[in-house]
Fold:
Amino acid sequence: MVACATFQTGCGATSAASYERPAVSTPSVYRAGGEAFEMARESIAPHWWRGFRDTYLDALIERSIQGNPDLRIAVARVEEASAAIGQARAARLPTVSAGGNVTARGDRSPFSGNRQTTENYGAQTQLSWEIDTWGKLKKGVNARKAAYRAGEADWRAAYLTIVSQVATSYFLVRQFDEQLAIQQRSLDTAQSILRIYRNQLREGLVANTEVLRQEAEVNSIRRGVLDLQRQRDLGENALATLLGVPAGGLDVPVSPLTPTVRELDVPAGLPADLLRRRPDIVAAEYRVLEAYELVGQAELARLPSLSLTGNSSGGGSLASASLSALVKSLTFGIGPSVNIPLFDPGVKARIRTSKASARTREEEYRRTVILAFQEVEDALVNLSSRRAQKAELLAELKNLETVARQMRAQLRAGIVTQLEVLESERRLLSTNQSLLSTHQQILADTVTLYKAMGGGWDEDIVSQASL
Structure:
């Protein structure tokens, strides 16, 4: 009666609820995106970085995809998860084991004194097969498949991270190249001003403090050149590591940033698209699905399990052993066995543990989604602000260029001094430095936005995935 009651109770527990994506609040539009961003829904190109129109950057990214150690680790983890699926599937198959033994016994005749040895052999074969009546073992396979898909998404997340790091590191190196050229022009201007002050000092037109102040300015600019070169070398080392090359093993040719790398259009999309585009969100959801399957497997462990077991055995004297004799001596037996878990505290403990793990995975998923929305909004805010700053800088630069042209014309007419012209050019160079820095920040923010948007990866909704 107890067995029947357990069986019937277990049957009622087999109807598990269908998987549903954890509920999370998502905005309808991106606040910082603007109307054009909200309305468009075109997908991001998989190789979106090619929009920068820099073939050297494309080559660096391709090298990093092949050689980066973090990506190699992610690939190995995917292979490990794939092997785990095969291990889970093997639990649904029958197992057969075979064994044998040989015994020898020696006796001495009390009458003749002769020694007589008898050798015997035995052979056994065992069959065991748990029939997956309730789908408990299938739940384990499904959980492994979900873990595998999560590993694939982790690889894509690592892929996006490496691509973005290579791009932003490359932009910094190019910025340093252009800054060094601007800084060298600033140094030339400062040295020209210093020569004018020294001439005026000899003529008694200025005090020595003006010369010392300008010499300090020259020293400061030279120190800036040395620091820029240091930062460029460090950026080159960082790029080498991302490519899987020892630091110092990469020599990036000198080239300015502004004419080399063009700005990329802002990607389009809606907040709802983020749930299927972002690989870290997809990975987090697959881990929720994995935990859901493990909860089902733990609950099904309360049901009776049905197994088929069989064995065969045989043996005889080695002196008369032959194939026909072995077959004749074999005995076979096979039959079902039922295991009813009437009292097993471990089963209840596993259910509680798996449910707690599932709740943890759900909260991790929600946290991942919330952080993803923040990354997109932050990137949009930065891009919007820096593009507005760039517009102001361009207007300022245009005015300063006009002033510089007028000052040079006034110098030829003898209205202003060479010193005044050089001072105006120094301010012009400073504004160019700010414009360059803003351009680099816009490029980096664009890369951050593409990464935050999922980088062109479009994955099926997990609840509709075929497992």
User: Anything to note?
Assistant: The chain has two domains: 22-92+134-302+343-464, 94-131+305-339.
